[in-house]
Write a structure and sequence with these properties.
Layout: H1 19-25, E1 38-44, E2 47-52, E3 55-59, E4 69-73, E5 77-85, H2 88-110, H3 127-169, E6 171-178, E7 184-186, H4 192-204
Antiparallel strand pairs: 1-2, 2-3, 3-4, 5-6, 6-7
Helix pairs in contact: 2-3
Amino acid sequence: MPRRDGVGVAGRSPERADPNAVAWRDRVEELLLAGERIRERVTAGEHGLVVTSHRVLAFHPPSADGPRFRAVDRPNAVAVRTETRESLRSLGWAVALATVGTLVAFVGVSVDFAGLLPTVEATGPMAGSVGGTLATLSTVLVALGRLVVLVGLVTILAGLVAFGRYLRGRRERLVVAVSGAADLSVPPPDEPERAVDALARAIERPPAPDGDDRAVTDDALR
């Protein structure tokens, strides 16, 4: 259920969270500059995004790629969105392998390889030898046709495996677009659209007229 921490929006319940990652994510106050205040907080498992009056902070567990902590100035945070990240390379391999495999299997099924042998009516003392040779070649060509079909099916299977990898590689992310640097990205919380709206408002919101930029209380979102 959503909670407020400062102005924070909670995400999905963490699985077995890394104690060090959670410690820094929940000890944001120790990282604040003089006069800096927390405006919004979004957590997703062991990841977290925090918007302050000055910056946007991102926290990641040690198991994640890249640094465990990043900070960007609020003016450089230009947009908040959810997006699907996917490996187009895996998708390309899946399409290519499936196409090639289908063509190869079609050739193996539609072509009568044994029929490629010429019809020879041998007579005389060599008739038996010629007939035996043609029969052997016919058997080899039939086996070749079956092998072509098998290769096609294996290639199609490889394409399906590549497509499965592509599907597994698709990841939904909550992204804060950053001008002039890599975006901040965490897994989406349970209510991604709500998190997007809350983060965007916190980033774009000007200071209060009296200069008081304090966070609202825990009951503000309930």
